[in-house]
Design brief:
Distance between the termini: 80 Å
Strand content: 15-25%
Largest sheet: 6 strands, parallel
CATH superfamily of the largest domain: Response regulator
Number of domains: 3
Number of strands: 12
Strand order of the largest sheet: 2-1-3-4-5-11
Order of helices and strands: HHHHEHEHEHEEHEHEHEHEEHEE
Radius of gyration: 24 Å
Helix content: 40-55%
CATH class of the largest domain: Alpha Beta
CATH topology of the largest domain: Rossmann fold
Shape: elongated
Length: 340
């Protein structure tokens, strides 16, 4: 079996440098790392991950926990893939490998916490979970460092889009265009995900601060985040009496997309009859109908912040309980100026 000492002799460096280079440590320059890896490859070196874990009392594995069941936000959501990519890139640079945990796995049962312990992961990123899992995860977090993204679970550090501020800005932006009755299609309010409640709170706070008329008929909660959910909620808004709103703020771009065929079927146009603004920065919003206004979540920065929080915990350092990342307003054709 080829050892790091064999590689060190061939590469002309110390065994310590070989270890750092092969483990992805940042205190080895790229030229040296490439030389060490080339020497190891030429010798046929195969890393012994089990021995490495025993020596350092680490598995060098990080779990990514994701619930499939009962949730209407798939992995092709514009937030998730860039987030996971940036998280993966940083964790792998520090020598960690990622394991994907789903609560619908048929291999080791549907208990997310059991997944974490059975695979002996060093840390966990919580991406999307069901409410029923939070108590078990809160207990597990006492033994396994964790960080959650866009979820709030007591005792687990979180990285979250600043939903409140973005929703507040959405109302401010529409107000600047002359709109004085602004409706809102909110996301689900009874889940671990904070997006629905925080965006609703920001919307209501802006209405109050701008002294805008607020009516119960200007708000509806969607059952989920998908286009069909948005279409159903939008129809509820349109069916209410004394419909005076001139703009609608949707808690997600997917829900706003669901409203588009409803408007077409009813002979309504955007933005002439109604201005629409969404949230998430979905790719389609840039290209459909001259462009739809949205708030783009900084998915890559969310992933980077999650990785940094988890790495600090793995080093035994204290971290901020909640880190909030601003969303970016992208103004397009779907919102128009009106005469007050």
């Amino acid at each position: 079996m080829v050892t790091i000492y064999d590689i060190a002799r061939k590469a002309g460096v110390s065994p310590a440098t070989v270890s750092k280079a092969l483990n992805g440590r940042q205190d080895v320059n790229d030229v040296t790392r490439a030389h060490v890896i080339a020497s190891a490859t030429e010798l046929g070196y195969v890393p012994n991950a089990h021995a490495r874990g025993l020596k350092m009392k680490k598995s060098w594995l990080v779990g990514v926990a994701y619930s499939d069941g009962g949730v209407s936000m798939p992995l092709d959501h514009p937030l998730f893939l860039p987030l996971l990519d940036s998280f993966k890139r940083i964790m792998e640079a520090e020598g960690y490998e990622l394991l994907f945990f789903s609560d619908t796995s048929s291999l080791i049962g549907n208990n997310m916490v059991a997944h974490c312990f059975s695979r002996q992961v060093d840390g966990v990123l919580l991406v999307k979970l069901l409410d029923i899992e939070q108590n078990a995860l809160r207990t597990a977090a006492q033994d396994i460092p964790m960080v959650s993204c866009n979820l709030l679970i007591d005792g687990i550090p979180a990285v979250i889009t600043d939903n409140f501020r973005a929703a507040y800005q959405a109302v401010e932006y529409l107000y600047s265009l002359g709109h004085r009755r602004i409706a809102h299609v909110a996301g689900p309010l009874d889940s671990l995900a904070v997006a629905g409640p925080e965006r609703l709170a920001g919307y209501r706070a802006a209405l109050a601060d701008l002294h805008l008329e607020s009516d119960a008929s200007d708000f509806v909660e969607s059952k989920g985040w998908a286009p069909d959910d948005g279409a159903e909620a939008f129809l509820q808004l349109l069916d209410r009496k004394d419909r005076l709103f001139t703009a609608v703020f949707f808690a997600s771009d997917a829900m706003m997309m669901g409203a588009m065929p409803v408007m077409e079927r009813l002979g309504l146009s955007c933005p002439d009859d109604l201005s629409l603004i969404g949230f998430d920065g979905a790719q389609w919003t840039e290209y459909v109908g001259g462009g739809y206004t949205t708030f783009r979540q900084q998915a890559e920065l969310l992933g980077v912040s999650c990785a940094r929080s988890l790495l600090r915990q793995l080093d035994g350092d204290e971290v901020e309980p909640i880190v909030r990342i601003p969303a970016e307003l992208v103004a397009r054709h779907s919102c128009c100026q009106i005469i007050v």
